[in-house]
Amino acid sequence: SNTLRIAVLPGDGIGTEVTQATLAVLEPLAKRHNLGLDFEHLRAGAFCYRDTGTAMSEETFEKAAKADAILLGAMGWPEIRTTDGTEIAPQLDLRFRLNLYAGVRPFRALPGVPVALADPRARDIDLVIVRESTEGLFFSRDRGTVTHDMAEETLRITRPVTEKLARFSFRLAQQRAARRGRKGTVTLVDKANVFRAFAFMRGIFNEVATEFPDVAHGAHYVDAMALDLVRKPWAFDVLPTENMFGDILSDLGAGLVGGMGFAPSADIGDTHAVFQPAHGTAPDIAGKGLANPTATILSAAMMLDWLAGKGAGQAYADAAAELDAAVDRAFADGLRTPDIGGSDGTAAAARAVAARIGG
Amino acid sequence: SNTLRIAVLPGDGIGTEVTQATLAVLEPLAKRHNLGLDFEHLRAGAFCYRDTGTAMSEETFEKAAKADAILLGAMGWPEIRTTDGTEIAPQLDLRFRLNLYAGVRPFRALPGVPVALADPRARDIDLVIVRESTEGLFFSRDRGTVTHDMAEETLRITRPVTEKLARFSFRLAQQRAARRGRKGTVTLVDKANVFRAFAFMRGIFNEVATEFPDVAHGAHYVDAMALDLVRKPWAFDVLPTENMFGDILSDLGAGLVGGMGFAPSADIGDTHAVFQPAHGTAPDIAGKGLANPTATILSAAMMLDWLAGKGAGQAYADAAAELDAAVDRAFADGLRTPDIGGSDGTAAAARAVAARIGG
Ligand SMILES: CC(C)[C@H](C(=O)O)[C@@H](O)C(=O)O
Ligand SMILES: CC(C)[C@H](C(=O)O)[C@@H](O)C(=O)O
Known about the structure:
alpha/beta, 12 strands, EC 1.1.1.85 (chains A, B), binds 3-isopropylmalic acid, 359 residues, 10-stranded mixed β-sheet, two-stranded antiparallel ribbon, homodimer, IsoPropMal-DH-like_dom (chains A, B), oxidoreductase (chains A, B), Isopropylmalate Dehydrogenase, 11 helices
């Protein structure tokens, strides 16, 4: 098969550690499935900004944009900030510049990993937040106006992006329905009771919904959804939402299933995609080999699956399924990372997963 | 003692039921403590809009504004909307027009009421979200612009309101510290890593913090806070935040301690204040006598406490403490409302609390 080029941007802090662990898992997997993966390491992030004056050079951006997929660790560092006080986050630039409108964040309880809620149904959590990732409140990034007495940001929602986000969510629900053997449900999360922009968003969503009669659909106010994600998260399937809302709800979702170490993500557009753990650079544990690489490993599985969907071949889909299964089995067999009170560090976790590939 | 005038706006749906239940509890309490409370019932809400064309008449607004405090049930109804698709919510008008910048939402696990989290420390949850309630994203209410292809809203943060919000939060932490016998902590919840407006907010918060050396302070990104409210809510004390963030996080907080039926709130300004449950009008159970009145009863206790702080006298503070204790005792003794799987309806819950006043 053809060789696919993967741009690897490890980033800062534990980003480099979880990326290394993931590559160590991908190697035997690629061999077994005969995947032609060619990894190109690229530098970007807060330390890159400190050392070179730019968080991601144009050259790096071009290389990443030309790759078949982008695998990213984590970026940012509390003490390294731009002059307006915000942090260095070139992963946001990638989302905007590559039009990665669908921020796909699946949440599922892995076997053996403790869940936060007391209700036993919490083990059945299996939902996906689809965070719009190119506009919403984040449209305002770098555009906020600040005077001595007042600051303003602009939340923007457009029809084309909302249509794409909605179609993406309905298609995802169809795929999940096929895998899970039950009808899918898409629930838009908005604040249409108060804001015209969200009433606008809901209107477009309802229009698109008519194209997918096989998928159930509804809408929920964001505050009610925050409540329901605590009360009955097992009742939800696919949840498209605005950028800022998705940022908040996806951390909530991660908290339900063991924390950020278990929250993979994919930022997907019509042609490009970035795969990265939803967590940050974790300065408190960086460099200690303690970071849980699971979120990154699961993100890599999402990458293989996406590549398969882009025509890379069935071997990629098989490898993705096998990687997911290996992670499940590793935890079912007793793997316990430090974030859930265990003592298996980054390398040990990677070894445990690698050992179960094809097993 | 002087007579205090309380404007009572029951509103729509279960709003009228929980208000009636609360007044039934306040009556014996007022008698016992010799409180001179004079209740004036006023009409406002979605059905008022449907019937009269205005959700709250100017006359009603003037009467509410002249009262010593405002007790509100719940307002809004899914099918009754303004032409731009948003809901009828005159409670928001009250917040804006009376400058009720501090939306105080305390969360505490009542004895016997099941909490959502598996960790036993969840019974120690005792935190207060202070939702800024006059600007932030809600500044944009009625101001959003919508074209065929695009919609925009403006998030506004101002220095004077942020200073007031911060001072209010630090003073609240001081009062709580005195009651709880331990140092208070104020944690600002923002998104200063991405938005200039939130970097601006954090800067002002840190300035104000220097006025309160006896209170610990910190800041948290809103996504990380959504995670930590699931992971370790018992670690937090007072959490001031922007309007939209506070709306979301306070529903999450309610989910932790038994749901919206247990979430009181107070919208407080320099001179006026509105007390109301954080929940909505619950069309699904409205008119059935099933609504849990606890949030409204606890809101009424907050009202009495606030009136005491405004110089109404120690009897009001004593009555507030007694009302809180009566609610605790009622649930400790086995009161179980339908929202937590019990069969004690609105009137039964009110009776159970009333029976324990002074008990
Ligand atoms: C690091 C931060 C800028 C980023 C975001 O807010 O999008 C992160 O929280 C995420 O969810 O990917
Ligand atoms: C009903 C709604 C307009 C209101 C809000 O968003 O403020 C409610 O959710 C609240 O929290 O008081």
